[in-house]
Design a protein that fits this description.
Shape: globular
Helix content: 55-70%
Structural class: mainly alpha
Strand content: under 5%
Number of domains: 1
Largest sheet: none
Radius of gyration: 13 Å
Mean pLDDT: 83
Length: 93
Amino acid sequence: MSTHGWHFLQGADVTQKAFDEELGRRLAEHRKSLALSQDFLGTMLRRDQTYVSKIEKGKRTLSVYELARWAKALNLTASDVTELVSQGESDVE
Protein backbone atom coordinates (compact mmCIF):
# COMPACT_ATOMS: atom_id res chain seq x y z
CA MET A 1 0.00 0.00 0.00
CA SER A 2 1.37 3.39 -0.98
CA THR A 3 1.92 6.01 1.69
CA HIS A 4 2.36 8.83 -0.82
CA GLY A 5 0.97 11.99 0.70
CA TRP A 6 0.80 10.44 4.15
CA HIS A 7 4.50 10.20 4.99
CA PHE A 8 4.17 12.91 7.64
CA LEU A 9 2.25 10.36 9.73
CA GLN A 10 5.32 8.13 9.98
CA GLY A 11 7.29 10.56 12.14
CA ALA A 12 7.42 9.95 15.87
CA ASP A 13 6.63 13.63 16.47
CA VAL A 14 3.24 13.52 14.77
CA THR A 15 0.46 13.34 17.29
CA GLN A 16 -3.23 12.65 16.95
CA LYS A 17 -3.78 16.25 18.04
CA ALA A 18 -1.60 17.62 15.22
CA PHE A 19 -3.39 15.43 12.70
CA ASP A 20 -6.83 16.44 14.00
CA GLU A 21 -5.91 20.13 13.90
CA GLU A 22 -4.61 19.92 10.34
CA LEU A 23 -7.57 17.91 9.08
CA GLY A 24 -10.00 20.26 10.82
CA ARG A 25 -8.30 23.31 9.34
CA ARG A 26 -8.54 21.85 5.84
CA LEU A 27 -12.17 20.80 6.27
CA ALA A 28 -12.96 24.34 7.45
CA GLU A 29 -11.22 25.83 4.40
CA HIS A 30 -13.26 23.58 2.12
CA ARG A 31 -16.51 24.40 3.93
CA LYS A 32 -15.79 28.11 3.57
CA SER A 33 -14.95 27.69 -0.13
CA LEU A 34 -18.50 26.37 -0.53
CA ALA A 35 -19.86 29.40 1.38
CA LEU A 36 -21.43 27.15 4.03
CA SER A 37 -21.77 28.27 7.63
CA GLN A 38 -20.87 25.99 10.52
CA ASP A 39 -24.52 26.09 11.52
CA PHE A 40 -25.71 24.95 8.08
CA LEU A 41 -23.11 22.17 7.91
CA GLY A 42 -24.13 21.08 11.39
CA THR A 43 -27.73 20.85 10.23
CA MET A 44 -26.64 18.72 7.26
CA LEU A 45 -24.74 16.43 9.67
CA ARG A 46 -27.62 16.43 12.18
CA ARG A 47 -25.28 17.98 14.73
CA ASP A 48 -25.04 21.42 16.25
CA GLN A 49 -22.66 24.21 15.33
CA THR A 50 -20.40 23.54 18.33
CA TYR A 51 -19.68 20.02 17.02
CA VAL A 52 -18.54 21.48 13.68
CA SER A 53 -16.43 24.08 15.48
CA LYS A 54 -14.71 21.45 17.65
CA ILE A 55 -13.85 19.33 14.61
CA GLU A 56 -12.54 22.30 12.66
CA LYS A 57 -10.38 23.39 15.60
CA GLY A 58 -9.00 19.87 16.07
CA LYS A 59 -10.55 19.47 19.50
CA ARG A 60 -12.35 16.26 18.45
CA THR A 61 -11.18 13.27 16.47
CA LEU A 62 -13.31 12.20 13.54
CA SER A 63 -14.03 8.50 13.20
CA VAL A 64 -13.98 7.02 9.70
CA TYR A 65 -17.78 6.99 9.80
CA GLU A 66 -17.95 10.67 10.78
CA LEU A 67 -15.37 11.59 8.13
CA ALA A 68 -17.49 9.83 5.52
CA ARG A 69 -20.52 11.86 6.65
CA TRP A 70 -18.50 15.09 6.39
CA ALA A 71 -17.29 14.08 2.93
CA LYS A 72 -20.84 13.46 1.75
CA ALA A 73 -22.08 16.76 3.22
CA LEU A 74 -19.21 18.66 1.60
CA ASN A 75 -19.56 16.78 -1.69
CA LEU A 76 -16.07 15.25 -1.40
CA THR A 77 -14.93 11.91 -2.75
CA ALA A 78 -12.55 9.60 -0.88
CA SER A 79 -9.71 10.84 -3.08
CA ASP A 80 -10.70 14.45 -2.30
CA VAL A 81 -10.42 13.68 1.42
CA THR A 82 -7.01 12.09 0.86
CA GLU A 83 -5.95 15.19 -1.03
CA LEU A 84 -7.15 17.44 1.80
CA VAL A 85 -4.99 15.53 4.24
CA SER A 86 -1.94 15.27 2.00
CA GLN A 87 -1.81 18.92 0.86
CA GLY A 88 0.96 20.79 2.63
CA GLU A 89 1.91 17.72 4.63
CA SER A 90 5.17 19.38 5.62
CA ASP A 91 3.11 21.85 7.67
CA VAL A 92 2.30 19.14 10.19
CA GLU A 93 5.13 18.49 12.62
